[in-house]
Write a structure and sequence with these properties.
Layout lengths: L2 H18 L3 H13 L4 H23 L4 H8 L3 H11 L4 H19 L5 H11 L1
Helix pairs in contact: 1-2, 1-3, 2-7, 3-5, 3-6, 6-7
């Protein structure tokens, strides 16, 4: 995979890590770095949504007693990413993850409809996590 997708994936991991450790200040810095590096806000948001969806699914599968190997089979996701997502997901309840996802989908809609400026919308989303 190319450098750009690695950069954004790494950036999103770092951002979610910061948020899950209650370091909003760091999360905002990381968001601004991603934007400054030229990542489109819509791409940042879709990466956050993708990560959160994986966190929710892997958390549900793990809590149902599925081992990593089974989760990997079901989701077709790389084991490294599953482990990372499960680690982040520990810090959130299933209810939290669902709430964050609903906010993220609504943020996506607001950006697409032009209701909110993309950067502001992302900042608000992070503030609400």
């Amino acid at each position: 995979s190319g450098g750009i997708s690695d950069n954004i994936e790494h950036g999103i991991f770092a951002l979610i890590d910061a948020v899950s450790n209650n370091r909003k200040d760091l999360a905002f810095d990381l968001l601004h770095q991603l934007i400054l590096s030229g990542e489109p806000e819509t791409r940042i948001l879709s990466s956050i949504i993708g990560q959160m969806e994986v966190m929710l699914v892997t958390k549900q599968l793990a809590e149902d007693g599925n081992p990593i190997g089974e989760i990997k089979k079901v989701t077709k996701i790389h084991e490294f990413r599953i482990k990372k997502c499960l680690n982040f997901a520990k810090k959130f309840t299933e209810k939290d993850l669902k709430r964050i996802l609903i906010n993220a989908y609504s943020t996506d809609g607001k950006i697409k409809m032009g209701v909110l400026a993309p950067q502001l919308a992302l900042e608000m989303l992070i503030a609400e996590i």
